[in-house]
Amino acid sequence: MTSLTREDLKTEQPISWCPGCGNFGILRALQTALVDLKIPREKYLVVTGIGCHGKLFNYININGFHGIHGRVLPFATGAKLANHDLIVLGFAGDGDQYDEGLGHFPHAARRNIDVKLFTHDNKVYGLTTGQTSPTSPQGYKSKTSPGGAIPTPINPLMLALASNASFVARGFVGDVTHMKELMKAAIQHKGFALVDILQVCITFNRAQTYQFYRDRVYKLEEENHDATDLQQALKRSRETGDRIPIGIFYQEERPVYRARLPQIKTQPLIKQPIKPTKLKQLLREFT
Ligand SMILES: Cc1ncc(C[n+]2csc(CCOP(=O)(O)OP(=O)(O)O)c2C)c(N)n1
Ligand SMILES: [Mg+2]
Asked: Which of 95, 242, 267, 281 could form a disulfide with 133 if both were Cys (CB 3.0 to 4.6 A apart)?
């Protein structure tokens, strides 16, 4: 199959996200990005974490792996190294990626593992009913921080830039067409790509609403941003107040991790013949 339609990408699973959830925008952007790219669907692998975002696995008719909490990047990395012909798309939550899975994040970025990471950054633990997350703003009130969150939030874009990520972007669920273009750019980028998505949780996060973001977001490409300039990218990534930039902050060409692995230079690992180890010989050697 060479071309896909949105219908091809739908599944029969009833969608259980709350009506108005920002995840609908992410699903729609993904469907339309894949339709636009005209790449056969068997080329893709979707890997999701645990949380409301993880249900995306059930709603997109693409081969997938619904992993465990915080482990999108290890699974995605393993899949990519085993079969580098796959285009590996990871979908993680803010809790999932920037709390439970935080340790994996800078390493995937600095290795330039060729996976695309889309984070549903709703600034709240959605599925477990609204606890404060690592990206919740300081002072954020929830059942786990009734007096207001004490720590400052993690800034995923600064973290990605400081970890030498070769593609760093931010999208907003209130602008699906723009987000779709970011997804396409990330998928076409050779190397690790982060698209942190401002996703609205209408049920538990009553602070970062659609209107909150509509009043603040602006597009980098409309302000002469130079995405090859790391200093500019860092400066823009620090803007978090009344003006919140969306778009591509930074992009650079750098060899991907697997290109430096001699074992898989000629063909993917899964296509290589299995040479059974001579067990007896090994046992003799090590006993
Ligand atoms: C190891 C582990 N710890 C905790 C949980 C419980 N848990 C399930 S979903 C979730 C929060 C998900 O929040 P986030 O990643 O932001 O996703 P969202 O629901 O907001 O999309 C937690 C803590 C779990 N499933 N596994
Ligand atoms: Mg969340």
From this structure: 95
* pLDDT score recorded for residue 2: 60
State in Å: Cα 127 to ligand 2 middle.
8
The residue nearest atom 1 of ligand 1, judged by CA position, is 69
pLDDT in tens, 144-175: 999 999 999 999 999 999 999 999 999 999 99
The whole model's pTM is what?
A: 0.96
- Ligand 1 pocket check for 69: Cβ under 6 Å: yes
Q: What is the mean pLDDT of residues 70-88?
A: 98
Tokens for 100, please give them.
């439970």
Please provide residue 110's backbone torsions phi and psi, each rounded to the nearest 5 degrees.
Answer: -70, -25
Q: Is the CB of residue 120 below 6 angstroms from any atom belonging to ligand 1?
A: yes
Residues 6+ apart with CB under 8 A from 119: 91, 92, 93, 94, 97, 98, 156, 194, 195, 196, 197
Q: Which two tokens stand for residue 132?
A: 């404060």
Q: Which two tokens stand for residue 36?
A: 């636009």
**Would you say the CB of residue 127 lies under 6 angstroms from ligand 1?**
yes
Query: Pick the residue with more confidence: 276 or 198?
Result: 198
52 C-beta closer than 6 A to ligand 1: yes
Architecture of domain 6-286: 3-Layer(aba) Sandwich (3.40)
Q: 55 in ligand 1 pocket by Cβ < 6 Å?
A: no
* Average pLDDT taken over every residue of the chain: 96
Burial class for 105, CB neighbours closer than 10 Å (0-12, 13-18, 19+) = buried
